[in-house]
Amino acid sequence: MGNFQIIFRKLRTSSRLTQNEMAEKLGISRSTIGMYETGAREPDFETLEKIADYFNVDTDFLLGRTEQTTMLPETIGSYSKTRELTEIYLQLSNNNQERVLTYSKSLLSTQQLDDELATATQYQQPTTLAAHHEGNEYTEDELKEIDQFKKIVENKRK
């Protein structure tokens, strides 16, 4: 398969993935990844497509038939953002990963609500955001999260 073994290894290592991590993402064994990289084995078509999809490259590029890959216009930029978010997320502790998921779901829910309100015929943006806090009903972490949410709302105005 031409230069597949070299190209595949470069893609994997430049993405800072171990052979184990790559194998997990593709649903194959680590030893298979090693054999791909040494040229002892070649991927079947289905696996080749999975690799191309994961790295957002075309199969001709993977096979060394072209020097450049063709990226679909709708994926340019979003792929690198997704990869950056994934890399950051994987570095977080399990507890912080859960917090990111919870916050992301909350943010998405808020966005969907905003979208629904924006389509309503008499939608008017609120001019005031008010919160009431008495005593120790919120933990320190919850207060920080409320403050972060406040900053997000304020940034929407800009």
Q: What class would the helix/strand composition place it in? A: mainly alpha
Percent of sequence in beta strands: under 5%
The whole-number mean of residue pLDDT values reads: 81
Largest sheet: none
What distance separates the N and C termini? 52 Å
Brief summary of the model shown:
This protein is mainly α. It is built from 8 helices and no strands.
How does this model look, in words?
This protein is mainly alpha-helical. 63% of the residues lie in helices and 0% in strands. It has 8 helices and no strands. It has helices spanning 4-14, 19-26, 30-38, 45-55, 59-62, 78-91, 94-119, 140-156. Helix 2 packs across helix 3. The protein is elongated. The termini are far apart.
Task: Give the arrangement of secondary structure elements.
Elements: H1 4-14, H2 19-26, H3 30-38, H4 45-55, H5 59-62, H6 78-91, H7 94-119, H8 140-156
Helix pairs in contact: 2-3
